[in-house]
């Protein structure tokens, strides 16, 4: 049994260089966050698997949204995590939102509450 | 000088009296998220005026004693609506504002029907959804209303308000989705409960109580809001979402608003310990906080200790960590430990002391023989006193069984809490639950609802049985064990398990990272068909259980005495 490397990801981590993040970078970053919340090793997270199938509950869906807002300055609604329910799908969606936001210099993310 | 709470006639009157004593003082502060503009501050004068207008609006539409659903997010409108109902003499029924999830809508629909609600109070953003919901659910005649035009109303004398014995709130925290049960709380119950917490916590008008617990939850509504306002203090609340996104915001609110008391379930303490960074911690001052009530779900001693240690540099004192005990059937508050926490070891597990039972009598009773047990012995916790509710709404038989139990050879009229524990040195220790309720993030859930949702997740589970239970790992984790059709291909089993987790997360919001698929006939039942969940839990924890497939969280895997084995292997 691999112990989860929780300490490494205790904080949202380095979102990387400025500019819109690529889907690849978002994937790595998201997988690390998900692994941290689930107390699993990063390599245990299948990027294509539905997050809910790992038992990721609504409370952590909120936490992930908070992390996304803090790391990438994208306002997201927690329902996003259900609509794009895997690391890969969520990363692809966010990369699109980030690119659009940069292009128009406005925030196209769905504003939460 | 204001009237002592136990002598007040009703909550509306008690609030109005306090408002008259300190009209300019902030009564309610709603903390906005950073991008959402300035905080909303209602002085006692502002709030009392709006409450009176709301009460007048309700009096114009409803007869005394009719039920009003408060389907509002935590915020100023909820506070006005709640006190407006209690001033007008109609019954407030707090519910989570429907968020569109099917299960949430079903639950609210069940509550509307059970309560026989006459009106739904919502807000402008929620009005359309509320109307769509009542139409779709066929709740004809259930009007939806907002408080948007309250200020256009005329101020007028209201006349006499409700009495202590009148119903104030139906609190629907008990009962499964299909069978909701509303605890009937009178004005007298709530006043007595506020008084008990006031005395136990040494609270007064200089206290500022608050946090992120939503107002449809009894801890938010009574322990924070009602307590703060009825002692003439200030209540400071933030949106639960703001906390869930960034747990540090709870602690920042405590610091910025100088809160002296707060409350939350155990998981919130764990979230803060894990997610608040060193940099965030360095800027926090928690030294003005006098109590931090840890309650409404099982308290995990190491979580408490880790929090206290982590936040000691912010001025957080060991005695500020206040494990407490409470339940909706007794309004909310039963006991709170105000000295530094202490534990007793039971079956190798540290059980946390929850302080002295306040304002109520407590007995530990053998649930089988109904005889009172001596100090130190574990039995069911029974309570009696002024803050115990009147019963479950429109359920005379269940009310009699739960609220009017007699101790063998002693009699009396006792509330059976369904919680197990013991008393020692006048302190209550809660060890577990007699009933099979699961508690997830402070929400009570019925295993039947989880098992039903699991069964709907995949055709390979149709017609078979499952058992949902929690295991300490060491904080409580949900395990869903279910029989699977013998026709299911081994290669499909992981997909079936994932479908179950997904279903539980999306329909019930329950984290179920532990799904165990077993052969038909594995789940034990009584001769009457009742699922033996406790026995399945013991067998699961003992290890060595023969399973077809198991998805387990590492923390749960670690607490099994022996690993699970593949069914078919000898």
Please state the CA-atom Rg of chain B, rounded to the nearest Å: 24 Å
Q: Mean of the pLDDT scores of chain A?
A: 74
The radius of gyration computed from the alpha-carbon positions of chain A, rounded to a whole number of angstroms, is 13 Å
pLDDT under 50 segments of chain B (min length 5)? none
The CATH architecture assignment of chain A turns out to be Orthogonal Bundle
CATH architecture annotation name of the largest domain in chain B: 3-Layer(aba) Sandwich
Share in helix of chain B: 25-40%
**Structural class of the secondary elements of chain B?**
alpha/beta
- Domain count of chain B, please report it: 3
Determine the fraction of residues in helical runs of chain A and give it as a percent range.
40-55%
Query: What percent of residues of chain A are in strands?
Result: under 5%
**Under CATH, the topology of the largest domain in chain B is which?**
Rossmann fold
Instruction: Tell me the total number of β-strands of chain A.
Output: 0
């Amino acid at each position: 049994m691999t112990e989860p490397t929780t300490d490494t990801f205790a904080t949202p981590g380095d979102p990387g260089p400025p500019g819109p993040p690529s889907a690849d970078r978002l994937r790595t970053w998201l997988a690390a966050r998900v692994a941290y919340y689930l107390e699993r090793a990063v390599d245990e997270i299948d990027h294509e698997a539905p997050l809910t199938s790992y038992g990721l509950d609504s409370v952590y869906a909120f936490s992930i949204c908070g992390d996304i807002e803090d790391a990438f300055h994208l306002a997201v609604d927690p329902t996003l995590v259900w609509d794009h329910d895997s690391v890969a799908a969520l990363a692809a969606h966010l990369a699109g939102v980030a690119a659009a936001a940069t292009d128009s210099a406005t925030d196209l993310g769905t504003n939460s509450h | 000088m204001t009237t002592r709470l136990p002598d007040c006639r009703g909550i509306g009157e008690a609030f109005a009296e306090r408002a008259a004593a300190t009209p300019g003082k902030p009564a309610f502060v709603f903390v906005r998220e950073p991008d959402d503009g300035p905080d909303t501050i209602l002085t006692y004068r502002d709030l009392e005026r709006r409450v009176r207008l709301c009460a007048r609006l309700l009096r114009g539409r409803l007869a005394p004693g009719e039920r009003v659903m408060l389907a509002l997010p935590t915020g100023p409108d909820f506070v006005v609506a709640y006190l407006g109902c209690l001033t007008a003499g109609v019954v407030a029924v707090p519910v989570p504002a429907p968020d569109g999830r099917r299960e949430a809508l079903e639950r609210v629909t069940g509550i509307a029907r059970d309560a026989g609600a006459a009106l739904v109070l919502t807000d402008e953003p929620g009005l359309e959804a509320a109307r769509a919901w009542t139409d779709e659910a066929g709740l004809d005649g259930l009007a939806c209303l907002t408080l948007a035009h309250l200020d256009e109303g005329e101020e007028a004398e209201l006349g006499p308000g409700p009495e202590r014995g009148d119903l104030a709130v139906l609190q629907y925290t008990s009962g499964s989705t299909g069978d909701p049960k509303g605890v009937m709380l009178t004005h007298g119950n709530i006043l007595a409960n506020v008084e008990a917490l006031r005395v136990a916590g040494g609270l007064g008008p200089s206290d500022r109580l608050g946090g992120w617990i939503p107002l449809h939850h009894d801890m938010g509504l009574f322990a924070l809001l009602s307590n703060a306002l009825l002692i003439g203090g200030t209540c400071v609340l933030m949106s639960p979402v703001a906390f869930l996104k960034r747990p540090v915001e709870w602690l920042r609110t405590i610091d910025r608003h100088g809160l002296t008391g707060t409350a939350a379930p155990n998981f919130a303490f764990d979230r803060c310990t894990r997610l608040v960074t060193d940099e965030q911690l360095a800027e926090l001052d928690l030294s003005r906080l006098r109590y931090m009530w840890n309650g409404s779900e099982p308290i995990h001693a190491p979580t408490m200790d880790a929090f206290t240690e982590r936040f000691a540099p912010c001025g957080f004192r060991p005695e500020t960590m206040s494990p407490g005990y409470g339940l909706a059937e007794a309004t909310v508050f039963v006991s709170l430990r105000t000295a530094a926490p202490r534990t007793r070891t039971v079956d190798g597990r540290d059980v946390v002391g929850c302080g002295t039972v306040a304002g109520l009598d407590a007995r530990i009773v053998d649930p089988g023989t109904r005889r009172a047990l001596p100090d130190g012995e574990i039995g069911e916790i029974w309570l009696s006193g002024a803050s115990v509710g009147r019963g479950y709404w429109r359920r005379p038989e269940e009310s009699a069984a739960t609220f009017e139990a007699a101790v063998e050879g002693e009699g009396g009229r006792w509330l059976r809490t369904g919680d197990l524990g013991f008393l020692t040195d006048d302190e209550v220790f809660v060890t577990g639950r007699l009933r099979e309720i699961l508690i997830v993030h402070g929400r009570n859930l019925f295993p039947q609802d989880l098992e039903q949702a699991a069964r709907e997740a995949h055709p390979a589970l149709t017609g078979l049985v499952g058992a949902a239970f929690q295991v300490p790992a060491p904080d409580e984790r949900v395990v869903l064990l279910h029989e699977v059709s013998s026709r299911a291909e081994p290669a499909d089993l992981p997909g079936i398990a994932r479908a179950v987790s997904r279903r539980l997360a999306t329909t019930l919001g329950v984290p179920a990272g532990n799904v165990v698929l077993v052969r038909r006939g594995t789940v034990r039942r009584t001769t009457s068909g009742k699922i033996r969940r406790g026995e399945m839990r013991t067998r699961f924890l003992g290890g060595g259980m023969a399973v077809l497939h198991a998805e387990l969280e590492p923390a749960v895997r670690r607490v099994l005495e022996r690993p699970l084995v593949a069914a078919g292997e000898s």
